């Protein structure tokens, strides 16, 4: 058995993070309020998180030294516009320093403009479905011009809009927690609102620089129909996933994010078998998910280039992490060989971080000591980073 080189020249090879999950003390965001409100499903607040607001140079140094060529991180709307209509020059300069710092280290920055959190004032107005919300988001995107105008080739407008719509639906119904299989019904009004916000943001980003490639990312659930459940699966999947993929048809790329699968029977989602291996998030261990997600996204969106912007596993066993990535990358390579336009792979996550309510699910290629904030690259990080230099996937026959 020899090695093959399925990943083309210029292929994005990196890891992803999100501001609220790693920066710490994002006190002006809606999530900070939720974390400190009694009676929610949130187990613990984010507090200092990974302190990456101050330690981002260390994070980037480590990623670059490991061999990664790309780093996806987000800017925090609640920091940039903490009060409606007031844009912090200091925070814009902070994020611009991050862009420049990435470039200096040989990391190509992919900047996400919205990763789940919004300013408290935006939430108080009614969030995405409030009057004028699209225009407010577009104004914020335009204000980010100093951050993204030069040196940023890829911008993501909104991360996982389908999850935003799902969570909005839950909030309206007063639901707590997700079911053991599948996703709750998204709020239709929020679905339309975030799609409108995305399209407005795309225009603003292109106005900043026509050279920026702009898109958004979708949480792919890899819905698999059991025999006789094909129509049920299509009807279940469309409002939860496909409508958001379809909205990207005019974009420069679309982000594919997958972790596991959801099987659908005649009566709807079916939990994973009791004997299935599970991760720390209780998801079924299913490394081939990303291949299914890429192929389905391509079928829906057409000729738009694909980038895997999140894929990974929460585990305390780093050997299982490497095994998961090995299986996932084999699927990515096969998709490329079959002619899909896959332009990059960014793992989730660069660091152990705050996973929206708990620090327990360790997704990180890099471990974080929560007392000292010391970073330690796991063996999986060393292995995965080295592939960024060679663009070779060991064990695949030529």
TrEMBL record:
Coiled coil: none annotated. Keywords: Glycosidase, Hydrolase. One of its GO terms (biological process) is carbohydrate catabolic process. The keyword Hydrolase applies. It comes from the Bacteria. GO terms for cellular component: cytosol. GO terms for molecular function: beta-glucosidase activity. Belongs to the glycosyl hydrolase 1 family. This is Family 1 glycosylhydrolase. It comes from Streptomyces odorifer.
């Amino acid at each position: 058995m020899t090695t093959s080189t399925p990943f083309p020249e210029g292929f994005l090879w990196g890891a992803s993070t999100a501001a609220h999950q790693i920066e710490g003390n994002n006190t002006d965001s809606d999530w900070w309020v939720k974390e400190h409100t009694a009676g929610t499903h949130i187990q613990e607040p984010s507090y200092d998180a990974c302190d990456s607001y101050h330690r981002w140079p260390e994070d980037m140094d480590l990623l670059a030294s490991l061999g990664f060529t790309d780093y996806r991180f987000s800017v925090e709307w609640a920091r940039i516009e903490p009060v409606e209509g007031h844009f912090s020059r200091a925070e814009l300069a902070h994020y611009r320093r991050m862009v420049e710092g990435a470039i200096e280290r040989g990391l190509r920055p992919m900047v996400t403009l919205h990763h789940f959190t919004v300013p408290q004032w935006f939430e108080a107005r009614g969030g995405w479905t409030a009057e004028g919300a699209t225009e407010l988001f577009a104004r914020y995107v335009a204000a980010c011009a100093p951050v993204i105008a030069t040196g940023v080739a890829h911008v993501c407008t909104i991360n996982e809009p389908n999850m935003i719509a799902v969570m909005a639906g839950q909030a309206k119904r007063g639901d707590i927690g997700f079911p053991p299989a599948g996703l709750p019904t998204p709020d239709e009004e929020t679905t339309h609102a975030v799609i409108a916000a995305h399209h407005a943001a795309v225009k603003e980003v292109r106005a900043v620089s026509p050279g920026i490639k702009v898109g958004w990312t979708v949480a792919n659930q890899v819905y698999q129909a059991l025999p006789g459940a094909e129509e049920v699966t299509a009807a279940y999947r469309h409002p939860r996933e496909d409508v958001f993929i379809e909205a990207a048809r005019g974009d420069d790329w679309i982000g594919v994010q997958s972790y596991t699968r959801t099987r659908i029977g005649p009566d709807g989602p079916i939990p994973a078998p009791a004997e299935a291996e599970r991760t720390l998030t209780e998801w079924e261990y299913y490394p081939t998910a990303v291949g299914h997600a890429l192929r389905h996204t391509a079928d829906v969106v057409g000729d738009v280039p694909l980038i895997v912007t999140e894929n990974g596993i929460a585990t305390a066993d780093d050997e299982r992490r490497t095994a998961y990535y090995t299986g996932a990358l084999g699927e990515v390579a096969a998709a490329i060989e079959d002619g899909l336009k896959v332009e990059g792979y960014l793992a989730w996550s660069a660091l152990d971080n705050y996973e929206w309510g708990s620090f327990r699910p360790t997704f990180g290629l890099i471990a974080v000591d929560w007392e000292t904030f010391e970073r330690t690259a796991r063996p999986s990080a060393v292995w995965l980073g080295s592939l960024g230099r060679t663009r070779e996937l060991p064990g695949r026959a030529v």
